[in-house]
């Protein structure tokens, strides 16, 4: 039981006769303490004045303590004992809010215009850079710096078009990364952390869309639905969108994919997936594992007969995989392949061993769509 | 300087405080509850709507009752000003103070009616406050309701952990009411997974069949809806049927609400409602859906779903009704089987049937998939021969009854 709500002690001092201000009393009721704080803060929302991508103080501190990132260092000084900061490349890093640390100092906060400029820099000069390697390191840097951008936005209560512009690029970046880094070892990339931040950014973005007009809304409602395929929450949310959004071509396609998934019609789903663009396919791709598994399960039951043969090339066509990969997939699911025929049987189908199947090996359907799209155009959305 | 009206207010307030004092002293839970409930007309009395009643309350009542009543009076003031955000904050204090008192009642439960009244008002004010904030473009949907839920959980824990008192004095009798309040919040903020521990608590309780019928009907309604959401249709049917049958005849509105969820579940299990029932409860939106499903008419089903889309989506049953498509396929294909009178059915026949139903862009591969799915779900007994492009069905009962295969 929470003893911070002092009972006897407080009532005695109150009984000393002073008329009590409602505010004072509320301070001692922990439940509404937060609300009072909230009210006070709203009266003075911090407004940033830092016009560079990184506050001067932080740049000097990190340079002095040799805590600059490889990408922030002045070229030519990398090998020195104390590398110099490249002012056009240092970006404010994410710092966990801590007691005693004031994260609301205006000189440390970047106003919305600077935040957007920062995002552009991160996308064009880092994420889309043809020379910076390995991309896991590029991802780490951009991920962290974008997180710091979002933090500045939260502290300053940024909303509206500025907020949307930042979040849209963040979501595209995280979706693209979920595909590009799929299969990387856990120590280099954690898909769950990516997923958490992607969901948070997506929720925030969808909330921004509820007021005002936003030209890219359909694109992101569709991406959200595809990424969260099968989620009742996400599907119900989509159903509650206004008719004119739901009936747009991009949403119509996403809804068809969703319907095919809910009806458990993987043949239809995989066929519809061909019509998705690259980023949409990135959003969908992790569900293709389930989709293909469902197909093999359904067919194992539906075609279960000792004497029947199903052509392997036909199966690979339906699965949108080449023949060797189809073979591999069948084997992992206990589906027997004899030469160029598949023998389905409901008794032999099994779930693959954990970790045996690597999603990354089956990326062909998505890969093909990238063609000559640049990373920059993917994230800025001008495909 | 006191004005006459101020003196009247003070007088009325002291009267109220004394009444509360008496009620507490005599352990009159129901009467005390009335004095603190917003269903009771006293809340409209302008003489009680005061901004700073603390001092007077302290004169009559002990801690924490003084804070509780003072907060309640401030709440009436806030409500009279239509400031539901403030009302919610005050009600939070009412519940907090109440809980402190409640916890100190050892082996007695006379204050349960008070708990019911103050927690109900808390949830209602949280709702109203959120609506107010959203209209101003502030606040996030669910924030206040979640906080209210936390407080209700605090009360729940006090009730659930009352192991010492005898059954008549046990605070456990308060559990189901609180659970129903929590369900309402969790459904509103769409966090259904939070219902699970509560359901577990009741399932393991020996009081579960002894709560009032009204509370049990509400409980089963929400548990049934949760089961629907989790695609557990058999248990969903049981819960919702119980709720419907035992819901009081006079609560037409509640019976209708239960039916809205019971009907789709029953249809998924193969039981179509008759028109009489639909007409009686003003649910004719289901009429076309029912007709379409039982005839295997996909075209009519799609039309019916589109026509009443808004209603179905608002109730949250649109997605479940879409699942009826599988049942509709089954009924359609059964007709094909009955028409062709053979056990070796060409796949093409099914494709023709689908095309007649104006199903978009369907080809023979998809037909195979739909059939395979029906076999997998147990709706058809047989297998597909790709080489012969035929569906071979069992000679005995190839289309088992829906209720047995769901």
Number of DSSP helical runs of chain B: 21
Number of helices of chain A: 18
Compute the gyration radius of chain B: what is it? Answer: 28 Å
Largest interface: A-B, 48 and 45 residues
Order of helices and strands of chain A: HHHHHHHHHHHHHHEHHEEHH
How many strand segments of chain A?
3
- Report the uncertain regions of chain B: none
First-residue to last-residue Cα separation of chain B: 76 Å
Name the strands of the widest sheet of chain B in spatial order.
Answer: 1-3-2
Strand content of chain B: under 5%
How many beta-strand runs of chain B?
A: 3
In whole angstroms, how far apart are the ends of chain A?
57 Å
Main pleated sheet of chain B: 3 strands, antiparallel
State mean pLDDT of chain A (0 to 100 scale): 87
Shape of chain A: elongated
GO biological process, one term (chain A): centrosome duplication
Biased composition (Basic residues) (chain A): 1-17
Protein name (chain A): SAC3 domain containing 1
Region (Disordered) (chain A): 1-23
Could you walk me through the main structural features you see in this protein, from its secondary elements to its overall organization?
The complex is a heterodimer of chains A (383) and B (406). With 383 residues, chain A is an all-alpha fold. Among the domains of chain A are: 43-95 and 103-214, no CATH class; 289-354, Arc Repressor Mutant, subunit A (Orthogonal Bundle), CATH 1.10.10. Helices cover 56% and strands 2% of the residues of chain A. Chain A is built from 18 helices and 3 strands. Chain A has helices at residues 8-15, 22-27, 30-43, 56-64, 112-127, 135-155, 161-180, 191-208, 217-227, 232-239, 243-246, 249-262, 266-273, 278-302, 312-319, 323-332, 364-370, 375-380, and strands at 310-311, 336-338, 341-343. In chain A, helix 9 runs parallel beside helix 14 (278-302) and helix 14 (278-302) runs antiparallel to helix 17. The longest helix of chain A has 25 residues, at 278-302. The termini of chain A are far apart. Mean pLDDT of chain A is 87; it is low at 1-34. Chain B is mainly alpha-helical and 406 residues long. Chain B has helices spanning 4-25, 29-36, 54-60, 65-80, 84-104, 112-135, 143-160, 175-188, 195-203, 213-229, 233-246, 252-268, 275-280, 285-295, 298-307, 309-315, 318-322, 324-340, 347-356, 364-376, 402-405; strands spanning 344-346, 382-385, 390-393. A 3-stranded antiparallel sheet of chain B has the order 1-3-2. In chain B, a hairpin with a 4-residue loop joins strand 2 (382-385) and strand 3. The model of chain B has no long low-confidence stretch (mean pLDDT 90).
């Amino acid at each position: 039981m929470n003893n911070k709500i002092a009972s006897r002690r407080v009532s005695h001092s109150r009984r000393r006769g002073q008329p009590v201000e409602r505010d004072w009393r509320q301070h001692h009721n922990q439940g509404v303490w937060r609300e009072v704080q909230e009210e006070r803060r709203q009266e003075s929302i911090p407004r940033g004045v830092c016009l560079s991508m990184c506050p001067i103080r932080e740049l000097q501190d990190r340079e002095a303590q040799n805590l600059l990132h490889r990408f922030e260092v002045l070229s030519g000084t990398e090998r020195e004992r104390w590398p110099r900061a490249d002012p056009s490349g240092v970006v404010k890093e994410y710092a966990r809010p801590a007691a005693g640390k004031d994260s609301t100092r205006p000189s440390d906060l970047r106003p919305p215009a600077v935040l957007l400029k920062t995002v552009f820099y991160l996308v064009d000069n880092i994420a889309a850079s043809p020379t910076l390697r390995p991309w896991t390191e590029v991802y780490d840097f951009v991920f962290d710096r974008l997180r710091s951008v979002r933090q500045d936005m939260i502290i300053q209560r940024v909303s509206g078009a500025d907020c949307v512009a930042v979040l849209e690029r963040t979501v595209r970046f995280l979706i693209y990364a979920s595909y590009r880094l799929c299969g990387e070892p856990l120590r280099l990339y954690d898909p769950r952390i990516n997923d958490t931040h992607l969901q948070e950014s997506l929720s925030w973005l969808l909330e921004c869309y509820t007021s005002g007009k936003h030209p890219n809304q359909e694109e992101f409602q569709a991406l959200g639905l595809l990424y969260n395929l099968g989620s009742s929450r996400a599907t119900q949310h989509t159903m509650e969108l206004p008719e004119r959004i739901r009936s747009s071509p991009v949403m119509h396609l996403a809804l068809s994919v969703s319907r095919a998934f809910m009806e458990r019609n993987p043949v239809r789903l995989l066929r519809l997936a061909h019509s998705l663009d690259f980023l949409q396919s990135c959003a969908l791709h992790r569900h293709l594992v389930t989709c293909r598994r469902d197909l093999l399960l359904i067919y194992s039951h539906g075609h279960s007969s000792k004497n029947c043969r199903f052509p392997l090339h036909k199966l690979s066509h339906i699965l949108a995989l080449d023949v060797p990969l189809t073979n591999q997939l069948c084997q992992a699911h206990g589906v027997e392949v004899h030469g160029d025929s598949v023998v389905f049987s409901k008794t032999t189908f099994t779930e693959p061993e954990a970790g045996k199947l690597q999603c990354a090996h089956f990326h062909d359907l998505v890969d093909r769509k990238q063609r000559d799209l640049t990373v920059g155009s993917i994230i800025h959305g001008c495909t | 300087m006191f004005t006459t009206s101020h003196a009247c207010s003070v007088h009325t307030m002291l009267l109220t405080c004394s009444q509360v004092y008496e009620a507490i002293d005599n352990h009159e839970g129901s009467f005390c509850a009335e004095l603190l409930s917003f269903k009771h007309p006293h809340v409209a009395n302008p003489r009680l709507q005061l901004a700073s009643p603390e001092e007077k309350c302290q004169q009559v009542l002990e801690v924490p009752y003084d804070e509780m009543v003072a907060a309640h009076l401030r709440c009436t003031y806030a409500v009279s000003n239509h400031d539901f955000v403030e009302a919610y904050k005050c009600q939070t204090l009412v519940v907090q103070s109440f809980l402190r008192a409640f916890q100190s009642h050892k082996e007695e439960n006379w204050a349960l009616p008070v708990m019911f009244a103050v927690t109900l008002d808390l949830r209602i004010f949280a709702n109203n406050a959120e609506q107010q904030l959203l209209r101003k473009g502030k606040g996030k949907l669910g924030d206040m309701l979640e906080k209210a839920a936390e407080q209700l959980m605090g009360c729940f824990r006090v009730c659930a952990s009352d192991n010492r008192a005898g059954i008549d004095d046990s605070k456990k009798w308060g559990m189901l009411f609180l659970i129903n309040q929590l369900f309402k919040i969790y459904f509103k903020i769409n966090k259904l997974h939070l219902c699970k521990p509560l359901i577990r608590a009741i399932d393991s309780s020996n009081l579960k069949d002894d709560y009032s019928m009204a509370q049990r009907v509400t409980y089963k309604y929400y548990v049934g809806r949760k089961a629907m959401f989790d695609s557990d249709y058999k248990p969903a049917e049981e819960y919702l049927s119980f709720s419907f049958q035992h819901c009081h005849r006079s609560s037409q509105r509640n019976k209708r609400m239960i039916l809205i969820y019971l009907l789709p579940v029953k249809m998924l299990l193969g039981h179509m409602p008759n028109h009489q029932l639909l007409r009686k409860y003003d649910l004719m939106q289901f009429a076309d859906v029912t007709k379409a499903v039982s005839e295997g008419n996909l075209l009519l089903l799609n039309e019916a779903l589109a026509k009443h889309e808004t209603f179905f989506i608002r109730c949250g049953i649109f997605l479940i009704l879409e699942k009826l498509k599988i049942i509709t396929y089954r009924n359609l294909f059964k007709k094909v089987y009955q028409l062709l009178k053979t056990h070796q059915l060409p796949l093409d026949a099914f494709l023709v049937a689908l095309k007649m139903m104006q199903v978009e862009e369907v080809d023979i591969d998809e037909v195979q998939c739909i059939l395979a799915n029906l076999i997998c779900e147990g709706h058809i007994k047989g297998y597909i021969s790709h080489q012969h492009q035929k569906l071979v069905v069992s000679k005995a009962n190839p289309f088992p009854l829906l209720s047995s295969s769901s």
